[in-house]
Fold this protein.
Amino acid sequence: MFVLAASTLATSCGTQKEKEETEFQYNDERFADLQMLRYRVEGFDNLSLRQKKLVYYLSEAALSGRDILWDQNGRFNLRIRQMLETVYTDYEGDRESEDFKAFTVYLKRVWFSNGIHHHYGSEKFLPGFSEEFLQQALQNVDASKLPLTEGQTLEQLCAEIFPVIFDPTVMPKRTNQADGQDLVLTSAANYYGEGVTQKEAEDFYLRMKEADPDPEHPIMFGMNSRLVKENGQLKEKVWRSGGLYGAAIDRIIFWLEKAKTVAENDKQVAVIDKLIEYYRTGDLHTFDDYTILWVQDTEGDVDFTNGFTESYGDPLGMKASWEGLSNFKDKEATERTKKLSANAQWFEDHSPVDARFKKQNCKGITAKVIVAAILGGDLYPSTAIGINLPNSNWVRAEHGSKSVTIGNLTDAYNKAARGNGFQEEFVIDQATRQMIDKYGDVCDDLHTDLHECLGHGSGKLLPGVDPDSLKAYGSAIEEARADLFGLYYLADPKLTELRLTPDAEAYKSQYYTYMMNGLMTQLVRIEAGNTIEEAHMRNRALIAHWVLERAADGSATPAVQLVKQNGKTYVQINDYPALRNLFGQLLAEIQRVKSEGDFEAARQLIETYAVNVDPVLHQEILQRYKALDLAPYKGFINPEYIVTEDEDGNITDIQIRYGEAYDQQMLRYSRDYKTLPFIN
Ligand code: ZN
């Protein structure tokens, strides 16, 4: 599970964190609704050469699975990428023409989304150039560079691919979450073969679960395979060496083998070994063993995520997209999260949820702040700022979990957002803005820590409850649970006692920005007329709207309300402690829903509070946001690692280089990390 940058604003200022600024450019180019940023790998130079090598090998492993994600996001994506990139590099017509400019924007969007659907909303975005333009451009490039199948002509290729690019009715959603539709048949994501229905997929995995000899320790059923129908029979095509995506996985294994030779300790060697074994076999029991070892590996500085991890892209929430991340510990900032994990049991005991749903023994919760060194797969270029793994409920309960807050990315978001006018437009008054200036950065980081380290790790399922029983609503409910845990405790005196918040007022900044985001400003990410689909956005809308409604219940001065000033809508908070109470009440209910697997209640909550958008308010927010001329989504360009070798090929030094242009990075990745055939 992960947390995204909570707000589009990424509140700024924070005098506490003011550092000597060099000329580093956090903001890079902008196109469509996207802003490219850069992050600094602070502290890399202080690592030993051996650690630098480890980071480097893990970074190569993190980049080597790129093609997997592209294919998971849609079965035409790899071919489309090849067609577009060939035109981009070889086009000899007028590169200043409107068509070519629109083409460039489209390609950059495809790169950003790792496919043709919006990375966040998952709807297909349409090109601003014509079919004729692309057809002509393709006719004028070297045909050997195009992804033609055996005996296929260019005309046939265009006939096959163009509807996928241009026709809005073909594969319109990557991950469809609309209640009442067949979510599998109507989703373009490549997790289910052609013709597989939602009912068939659900029954298939239900039968598997019913046959499980050890239901107390279920594997993550279906997590690492595509479910296909062959001759009328359903079967899984497993993603492993020698199986589906085998060529990419072999490349990942190659780099993991190298990483093993410079691991920091024996535990790390064992972790990497087990991951390789899992990649070779595709066995999900081995995967559980791997995650247990990974959770226990806490001594080294360098760490990684590599594999099929998050299931947000599967409409049924089972199949995991591939992602990679290499990182090392930010020791100073980690002192902060250590305080939380050391007190995990206290937080569990004092939470407002029913005692039946609490963990008696919070085991193995570890948390740290890390410096990201490379982002790959589903973490690139749009990324998480916090990650909590593993996702298996029983592994978390019996062996604990590892939480990370990615400090150098939040820092980059904050720095890039300085002075962009967002707060002046949407925050109700000067006093509230000053409060956010003063406490915003600290509380944002802390909320992420609480969400990841304690929120996801808290609570338990009642015996016999299927972890997947909330189905398509599971992700949003789980995110709401973690967010609420964080919101509730941000206001607790315990945090001031632990010296995590500077004083008893600090939490108010997060309460304000959270409500503002959930009720208003996150809507800038939604096109007029659309509903909310992404799990983290649904979670925020759910919390904010539920609380708003409860606050209004028979109260003359509600704890929180929407008010109008000069024709503009603002969030006004009248009673912060009462707001905390409401967060606590909702946390108790959400935990009950999760612990009991109450699907109907989950459906009610989500469909009532988290999906629909008030069209009038939406219009207003979009207009106000448009006037600021900001991009609602952000993503990161990776740094480059420049390796120096001696005559014998031994690495003698590794340096970081910033400044590679986004298109150059994308073309380089397509060249150096092309691992899969066009059709998988
Ligand atoms: Zn989360």
